[in-house]
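Bit of a strange request maybe. I'm writing a small parser for structure token strings and I need a real example to test against, not something I typed by hand. Could someone generate the tokens for this chain?
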Amino acid sequence: MNVLQRIAGLFDASAPQQVPILHHNDYLCNGQLVTWSGPRTTVATPLVEQPLGSYPALNEPAAMEALEAAKAAWRQGSGDWARATMGERIEHMEQFLAAMRTQREAVSRLIMWEIAKSWADSQKEFDRTIRYIECTIETVKDMDRDAARLILKEGYLAQIRRMPLGVGLCMGPYNYPLNETFATLIPAILMGNAVVLKPPRLGVLLYRPLLEAFAQCFPPGVVNTVYGDGPVVVSPLMRSGDVDVLAFIGGSHTADLLRTQHPRPHRLRAALGLEAKDAALVLPDADLEVTVAEIIKGSLSFNGQRCTAIKMVLVHRTIRERFLELLCETVDSLAFGMPWEDVLVTPLPEPARVHAMQIYLEDAENYGGRVCNQYGGKTRHTFFYPAVVFPVTPAMRLYNEEQFGPIIPVAEYDAIDEALDYVIRSPYGQQASVFGQDPAIVGQVVDALANQVCRINLNAECQRGPDTLPFNGRKDSAEGTLSIYDALRTFSIRAIAATPRTKANTALLQAILAKRSSNFISTDYLL
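Reply from user aminoacidic:
Good idea to test on real output. This should exercise your parser:
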């Protein structure tokens, strides 16, 4: 069977796994699973014609009820969770981690069926999230240990600790609906905040197996969930002015809208992961086999639906022909199919994404671009075969916009300044990849990029991990930094207790420490 026949027959074979139909009937509010009897949203799977399930389409009163529960748990900073010791919070989080581990199969299957992520990558997302929680617990222990002492500065005795901000709203993206949502949710909880969790539109059902764990492992109101249309359930939360920290990963238009709805935006702490147009700069002496392999991983992992995906390739004119030949040959040999198979390329999460990719190709062709690989742009229902497009010029949408899908735009350059100028002029500044061998040239390129993007990958794809490294962006790509350590800082603020070092004040501090009358002024050391 040739490639075209395989594409045409993709959705004809029955799935080896039974479709996990799940009608999600409740939401988490104030420590209770509240049954919803109102309207529902049907969840379609991109893999079969039958619906995957449904979830509550909450209204404004239900969303505000969840917010009120979080406010009650926070209690203007006097709530039990906000004033708990770090050791107490860690104990709750470890209980949740143990309960979450038992849901690996259920959550991974729902990720696969909801967004068409491969079975292997769906399991990997779950496992990476488990590791993220484990590493966050260890990091927060280290932070608490560092704070478990008094310091003496210029005649003042002081203790410095990081304290929670208040009520948080956490909203994650559909491409990593579990991992990237938890990358803000977990540090927000551990630092003592109360949160309202709004899952992405594509990726709601996978949270149902975890609701009991949230309810049982954390005090009432610490974690609450809302589902439904953003204007209906999210806008009222922001307009209330009671959200103290917003964690949002998605488009800048939505982020700007959310922020402007807050009546006191100067009081709103925001951690935003937004668009990116990460570029790969291929120098004349690049190892083409390594380069092509990394660019394909970087541009086509999960069908290019990653903010860190390589979304523009700039290759030197002298090697452009050989590069394109190898790139197209490799792309056309990629394993593709349904997500339960051992493949790299799978269907997209919904027909609208296929349509969006077709529009990009039509626009490029109108301005002189062409699909260079034999099968590029071939479609079947929600499947879109990856397309290599050349030449990509400034007149095309692919040159400027984040395509967020399986298209590899390629442009050529003569002088390295031309390639650097592309990155400099871009409104985005997350990452870039540089492929080359000459240390003098590579070093100069790194120096030029260091003031434009926040991560420079040498002979490697753009990527987020490991999670212990900073993950952020310049320009319109992000606000705030998300790594394990930085996320804990993002969801907290430093507070200081200080006093002049007099005999009376020293005695007072010693008495507080001896009687353990304060969780803040304490030298207890987490083991």
